[in-house]
Design a protein that fits this description.
Strand order of the largest sheet: 1-2-4-5-6-7-8-9
Bound molecules: ligand C2E, magnesium ion
Keywords: Phosphoprotein
Largest sheet: 8 strands, mixed, barrel
Radius of gyration: 20 Å
Number of helices: 14
Order of helices and strands: HHEEEHHEHHEHHEHEHHEHEEHH
Helix content: 40-55%
Protein name: EAL domain-containing protein
């Protein structure tokens, strides 16, 4: 049939990557998938890093790795331009493993330079639930024997955790036994009930940037953010706000009890090579320090 035809076109040696469901996706998006696979082989992906800080202490906590595609013709592409095409496919696992390996390489280099930071990477649901995931993680640390696993944090979408709460919880616990931490990304945008939140062993909740944006003007957003912050305190979890763009965002968050932040108001995502100098030169916001 047609799916088979597309798969054959893609080359026999690659067929194992795709099951029947994926063939259907490949039919629609075959070209993009092929290009993304080629980009991976040709080393066209690159990790940018965006700092995370404690505003009250004026301390850099670490950075989140964010993937970019250095496209030969189209320039630097953000994940929105290519991730949706592969999220339903096995390719997201190959790409995720590449991100993990690169992030550990960078982390090793920074630890060798004396930087004591936590690096976060985003993990796609399909990747986390892949049967090889924990073994791949162990292999990554085995390849970097000096690395402290508690310096790696995995960000998973709140919505992803709901797909199979039992398995997600089990995998999270296995990773945490190694020392790796977990953050629930874009928190508040999914539909997770508080029962799920109670069951999930996430170390950190990451408040979605859509609630932060209008926190000064929208009383409902303010109530949501305050609610999440209080919840994390009661559940003994850490909390961080994403999308902190202004001094006022930070001041209000500090008043509400959220000290940790990430956003353009602190730093934009930057190439890996720029991060050590950024950390050395960063001048914490003086108003934030007064809290
Ligand atoms: P995310 O994990 O929630 O990452 C935060 C996104 O918000 C990033 O976009 C970041 O550049 C952007 N951002 C940070 N601070 C601000 C701010 O103050 N204002 C605004 N407006 N935006 C801000 P980016 O890099 O385009 O990534 C988008 C999403 O793509 C990420 O959302 C994450 O879900 C996904 N992603 C990125 N890298 C990876 C990866 O390596 N693997 C996987 N599976 N997903 C990734
Ligand atoms: Mg994230
Ligand atoms: Mg997020
Ligand atoms: Mg997001």
């Amino acid at each position: 049939d047609q799916a088979m035809y597309v798969a054959k076109q893609r080359g026999k040696n690659r067929y194992h990557l795709f099951d029947q469901e994926l063939d259907r996706i490949a039919l629609i998006r075959g070209e993009t998938l092929t290009q993304i696979e080629a980009a991976l082989l040709n080393n066209q992906f690159v990790l940018y890093f965006q700092p995370k800080v404690n505003m009250r202490l004026g301390k850099v906590l670490g950075a989140e790795a964010l993937i970019r595609w250095q496209h030969p013709e189209r320039g630097l592409l953000s994940p929105a331009a290519f991730l949706p095409d592969i999220e339903g496919t096995e390719l997201v696992i190959a790409l995720g493993n590449w991100v993990l390996a690169r992030a550990l390489d960078h982390l090793q280099k920074w630890q060798d330079m004396g930087l004591n930071i936590v690096i976060s990477i985003n993990i796609a649901p399909r990747h986390l639930l892949h049967h090889d995931f924990v073994d791949t993680l162990k292999a990554g640390f085995a390849a970097h024997p000096q690395l402290r696993p508690h310096c790696l944090e995995l960000e998973i979408l709140e919505t992803a955790a709901l797909e199979d709460i039992g398995r997600v919880t089990a995998v999270m616990k296995e990773c945490q036994k190694l020392g790796v931490g977990f953050a629930l990304d874009d928190f508040g945008t999914g539909y997770s009930s508080l029962t799920y939140l109670k069951a999930l062993p996430a170390d950190t909740l990451k408040i979605d940037q859509s609630f932060i944006r209008d926190i000064l003007g929208d009383p409902e957003d303010l109530a949501i953010v305050a609610g999440i912050i209080n919840l994390t305190a009661a559940f003994h979890r850490q909390v961080i706000a994403e999308g902190v763009e202004t001094e006022e965002h930070g001041l209000l968050l500090l008043k509400l009890g959220c000290d940790n932040a990430q956003g353009y108001g602190i730093a934009r995502p930057m190439p890996a090579g720029d991060l050590p100098r950024w950390i050395t030169n960063w001048l914490p916001n003086q108003e934030w320090l007064k809290n």
